[in-house]
Amino acid sequence: MRRxxxxxxxxxxxxxxxxxxxxxxxxxxRLAREAVDEARDAGVDPADLYGPAVVYASTLARTVQTxxxxxxxxxxxxxxxxxxxxSVSKRFGRREVLHGIDLELRAGQVAxxxxxxxxxxxxxxxxxxxxxxxxxxxVQRTRxxxxxxxxxxxxxxxxxDEHFRLFGxxxxxxxxxxxxxxxRIASLLGWRPRREVVASHLSGGTQQKLNVALAELDGPxxxxxxxxxxxxxxxxxxVFRSQLxxxxxxxxxxxxxxxxxxxxxxxxxxxxxxxxxxL
Length: 279
Prior knowledge:
Radius of gyration: 21 Å
Distance between the termini: 82 Å
Largest sheet: 5 strands, parallel
CATH architecture of the domain at 81-144 and 220-273: 3-Layer(aba) Sandwich
Number of strands: 8
Shape: elongated
CATH superfamily of the domain at 81-144 and 220-273: P-loop containing nucleotide triphosphate hydrolases
CATH topology of the domain at 81-144 and 220-273: Rossmann fold
Structural class: alpha/beta
Oligomer: single chain
Number of helices: 9
CATH class of the domain at 81-144 and 220-273: Alpha Beta
Order of helices and strands: HHHHEEEHEEHHHEHEE
Strand order of the largest sheet: 5-6-7-3-8
C-alpha cells in the first residue's frame, strides 16, 4: 500500500472542505487534484504554495460559487452610475484627438468604443482609467476599476502567479487568495498558467489573458478593456465573450475598445470616434 504524503493529506482536506462548502464532489476532486499537480510540477509542497488546505479551499469555494451565480443570473440588474464623462476633450499639442465626449455608464451595462486607427480610442480609455488627464471636460468614476491595456501591462520577468500576488497585494488580498483567484479567472478564460514561465515568454494572446485576469482580480465595478482579444484564436475569443457577459451579469460595467463587429451584438451603446483633422 502506498504511504500517504503530506500532499495527499492536503488534497483530501481541500476536497472535503470544498464539498462541505457546496461544490460538487467531482468538481472538488478536480480542483484539488489540479492544485496538487501544479505544486508537484513546481517541486514544492502544496501547503507551502497555497497555504493551509482549509484556507485555500474556502477562498476557492467562494470563487467557484460566485462564478456559478453569475452564470445562472436570470436577468441583468442595472445599478448606479460608475462612469460619467461630460464634454471631455483631449489635445496633444495643436492636434485635437477627442472633442466633446459625453458618456454615462451604469453598473451592468456594456459600452463599445469603435473608430479608425488614430481616432483616440486608447486615449479615451486612458482618460477613463485616470492615466491621462483630459484637456477639457470632467470625468467622474468609481474608485474600484480594473484596466487591461492593449499593449504592455505586465512585467516581463514575473510569472503569472507573481503578477497575481503583486496585484493582489495592492488590493489587500493575501498571496494565497490572490493566486487562487487569478488562476480561477485564468481557467475561465481557457488558460492554465505554467508556474515557471515568465510573462515575456508567453504568446501575445496569453499575455492578453493575463492582462484580463489582472483587470478582474478584485471584482471591480468598472472594467476597462482595450482590444483585449489581440492574439486570441477563435475558441479563445468565444470563451472571452462568454466570460465578458458573466462579468456584466454580476453587475460590472464594461467599457471596451473593439473593432470586432460581433462585439456590438451584446452592448448597450456604441461610442464611435472619428479621426480629427490637424489644424
